[in-house]
Write a structure and sequence with these properties.
91 residues, alpha+beta, Double Stranded RNA Binding Domain, 3-stranded antiparallel sheet, 35% helix, Rv2632c-like_sf, DUF1876 domain-containing protein, Rv2632c-like
Length: 91
């Protein structure tokens, strides 16, 4: 039997024009657990052109990468809970 589940990722962006910085948070929501949160940041050098979309994209990519690593940690902890042995997630 096939089951379909939907997980959602909420991404919030905060742009600080004075510090030339964009921060992103990516929060994974599922029915199975408490939300998992990743964070990312992008900084614009003074010589860079002001293109907010690039900062948004970079900060979001970093937040999603952080979220992915945290989800792997959560998964390893879940496996260890059932196997009572250290989990090594590779590949």
């Amino acid at each position: 039997m096939m089951h379909t589940r939907t997980w959602t990722v909420e991404i919030n962006l905060v742009e600080d024009e004075e510090q030339r910085r964009t921060r992103a948070t990516a929060v994974l929501h599922s029915d199975a657990r408490t939300p998992v949160r990743g964070e990312g940041e992008a900084r614009r050098r003074p010589a860079d052109a002001e293109v907010p979309e690039i900062g948004d994209e970079l900060a979001t990519a970093r937040a999603l990468a952080d979220l992915a690593y945290k989800l792997l940690d959560v998964t390893a902890a879940d496996i260890e809970q059932f196997t009572h042995r250290p989990a090594h997630l590779t590949g």
